[in-house]
C-alpha cells in the first residue's frame, strides 16, 4: 500500500474500533436533488439516513434485480445493506480494507444474500468475471492508485457489467480523474458534476450529523471530525461551496 492508502486504512481501523454505534451505517456526504420529485419511499428505520441513501439512488442508476453486486469500500455497510434490501439483487458483497469496519458490517447489517469480507480495492479477492455490478461510493480518494483499482473493477466485472462510481476531488484533479475513467477499458456512459446536490444535502443534514458528533465523540475530536464530515462552517464544506472541491459521479459499462 502507498502512504495515502496506509494513512486512510489506519484512520478507518481506529474509527471503527472507537465508534461502535450500530446506527452509524453511512459515512458519505449525501445527495439532495435541486429540483426534487416525489420523495424516495423508505422504511421508518432508514429515514434518518435519507440523504446518504439518496446518494446511492443517484449513483446506482440501474435495475439490480437478480444480479450479483459488489460494493468496494463498503465502510460501515449501510449502502450494501440498502441495495440488498431495496433493489432486489441476487447477492450483495461488501469489501473493505479496514477489518474493524468489516466486523461492524458483519455484526450489524442485514439483507438477503448479503455478505462482507476484508480486501484491498487494488487487489480484489475475487476471481475474474465474478459480478454483474460494481459500486464505489466516496472511497477512491483513499487509494494510492486509482488506475490499478479501475483495472481490478474491469477484471471482476462480467462482460456487459456495470460500474457505478462517485467521489470528490480537488478542482485541479477533476480532468485527470475523468481521463482515468476513460482509460479504464470501460465505456463511460454518463458522468456528472453533482457538487451542488451534495452541498445541499450537507446543509439539510447538518443538524443531525452535528448532534451525532457531539454525542459520540469526545469534545477534542469535534473540530477534526467537522472537517471530515464537511459540516457547515468547516474548511472542507467551504471548499465544496466555492467549488475548489468537486463531487463527481459516473456510470460505466464493461465490454
From TrEMBL:
<dbReference type="InterPro" id="IPR013216">
    <property type="entry name" value="Methyltransf_11"/>
</dbReference>
<protein>
    <submittedName>
        <fullName>Ubiquinone/menaquinone biosynthesis C-methylase UbiE</fullName>
    </submittedName>
</protein>
<dbReference type="GO" id="GO:0032259">
    <property type="term" value="P:methylation"/>
</dbReference>
<feature type="domain" description="Methyltransferase type 11">
    <location>
        <begin position="70"/>
        <end position="164"/>
    </location>
</feature>
<dbReference type="InterPro" id="IPR029063">
    <property type="entry name" value="SAM-dependent_MTases_sf"/>
</dbReference>
<keyword id="KW-0830">Ubiquinone</keyword>
<keyword id="KW-0489">Methyltransferase</keyword>
<dbReference type="GO" id="GO:0008757">
    <property type="term" value="F:S-adenosylmethionine-dependent methyltransferase activity"/>
</dbReference>
<keyword id="KW-0808">Transferase</keyword>
<dbReference type="Pfam" id="PF08241">
    <property type="entry name" value="Methyltransf_11"/>
</dbReference>
Amino acid at each position: 500500500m502507498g502512504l495515502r492508502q496506509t494513512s486512510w486504512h489506519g484512520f478507518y481501523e481506529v474509527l471503527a474500533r472507537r465508534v461502535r454505534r450500530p446506527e452509524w451505517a453511512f459515512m458519505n456526504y449525501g445527495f439532495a436533488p435541486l429540483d426534487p420529485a416525489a420523495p424516495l419511499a423508505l422504511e421508518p428505520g432508514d429515514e434518518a439516513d435519507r440523504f446518504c441513501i439518496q446518494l446511492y439512488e443517484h449513483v446506482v442508476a440501474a435495475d439490480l434485480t437478480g444480479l450479483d453486486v459488489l460494493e468496494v469500500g463498503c465502510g460501515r455497510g449501510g449502502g450494501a445493506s440498502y441495495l440488498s434490501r431495496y433493489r432486489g439483487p441476487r447477492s450483495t458483497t461488501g469489501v473493505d480494507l479496514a477489518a474493524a469496519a468489516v466486523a461492524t458490517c458483519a455484526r450489524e447489517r442485514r439483507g438477503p444474500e448479503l455478505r462482507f469480507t476484508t480486501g484491498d480495492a487494488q487487489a480484489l479477492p475475487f476471481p475474474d468475471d465474478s459480478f454483474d455490478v460494481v459500486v464505489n461510493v466516496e472511497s477512491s480518494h483513499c487509494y494510492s492508485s486509482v488506475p490499478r483499482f479501475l483495472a481490478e473493477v474491469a477484471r471482476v466485472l462480467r462482460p456487459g457489467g456495470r460500474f457505478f462510481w462517485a467521489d470528490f476531488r480537488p478542482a485541479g484533479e477533476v480532468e485527470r480523474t475523468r481521463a482515468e475513467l476513460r482509460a479504464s477499458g470501460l465505456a463511460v456512459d454518463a458522468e456528472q458534476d453533482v457538487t451542488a446536490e451534495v452541498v445541499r444535502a450537507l446543509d439539510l443534514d447538518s443538524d443531525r450529523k452535528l448532534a451525532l458528533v457531539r454525542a459520540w465523540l469526545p469534545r477534542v475530536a469535534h473540530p477534526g471530525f467537522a472537517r471530515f464530515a464537511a459540516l457547515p462552517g468547516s474548511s472542507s464544506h467551504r471548499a465544496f461551496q466555492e467549488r475548489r472541491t468537486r463531487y463527481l459521479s459516473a456510470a460505466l459499462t464493461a465490454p
